[in-house]
Specification:
- A two-stranded antiparallel sheet has the order 1-2.
- It is extended, with a radius of gyration of 17 Å.
- The chain has 4 helices and 2 strands; from the N terminus they run ααααββ.
- 36% of the residues lie in helices and 11% in strands.
């Protein structure tokens, strides 16, 4: 696999995983653990945010830390939607 970003979606023989096959999102798990440990600022101003920007720019993207820290999130209270017996909570809604 040339692009390690997509490696979790392929098996040991280089074949795409089939529907229902399990895969591990190790980097994502590490990011969540780091946010839990260091707080959300690590995403917006720290190593996690910088890593996201680096990955995007390596692929030719134009995203910067200003995009992460800018007005992307409205900073509203979470929205709770209830339908029948199911409840969905959302926060950080996009403007």
């Amino acid at each position: 696999m040339e692009d390690k970003m997509y490696a979790p979606f392929f098996d040991d023989q280089g074949e795409v995983l089939q529907v229902g096959e399990k895969y591990k999102r190790v980097e994502y798990a590490r990011a969540l653990e780091r946010i839990a440990e260091k707080g959300v600022d690590d995403f917006y101003q720290g190593e996690i945010g910088q890593g996201i920007i680096r990955a995007v720019q390596e692929k030719g993207g134009l995203m910067t830390m200003d995009d992460i820290n800018g007005d992307l999130l409205a900073g509203r209270w979470p929205v709770v939607l209830r339908a029948n017996t199911k409840t969905t909570k959302r926060s950080g809604m996009l403007r």
